[in-house]
Specification:
The chain has one domain (2-80). The chain is 38% helix and 36% strand. It has two helices and four strands. Helix 1 (46-59) crosses helix 2 (64-80). The longest helix is centred in the C-terminal third of the chain and has 17 residues, at 64-80. Pfam families: YueH.
Amino acid sequence: MKVRKSLIQEIETKVFLYENKKEEYILVAVPSLEWSFSFTYEKFGERLIDEMTLSLQKVTKLTEEECEVLALKIDQWTKEM
């Protein structure tokens, strides 16, 4: 599991990234936002960013721009794993 830090609404927040290589999926969790999201390796790409952004908007009180920025960061971090 990897832990990354991100500024969300000017507050440093921990983002947890877990990769299961055997079953080929990634789990992302942001406890302070009470949000988590999982996806398979096959979902990497533009559609994944859109899905994460929509999920963040539904569950959190973040703006659309903040959700998109966080989704882009998560996408980048997961590609580095």
